[in-house]
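Continuing the batch. This is chain 6 of the set; chains 1 through 5 are on the previous pages. Same settings as before, nothing changed between runs. Recording input and output for traceability.
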Amino acid sequence: MSWITQGREFIKEVRVESSKVSWPTRNELRDSTIVVIVTVLIISVFIGIVDRILTFLVSLLFR
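Output for chain 6:
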C-alpha cells in the first residue's frame, strides 16, 4: 500500500473511532473541573505544610 492509501485508511479509521467517543455534557465537565481544582488545592496545601515542617526540623538539626 502506498503512503497515500495508508493515510486515507487512517483518516477513515479515526472518523469511525471518533464517532464512538462519549463526550461529557457541560455539567459533567464543569463538575470534573471543580473536583480537579479542589484536589490540586488540597494537595498543594498538604505539600506546603509538610515542606514547612521538614524545613523546620532540618534547621533544628543543623543549628
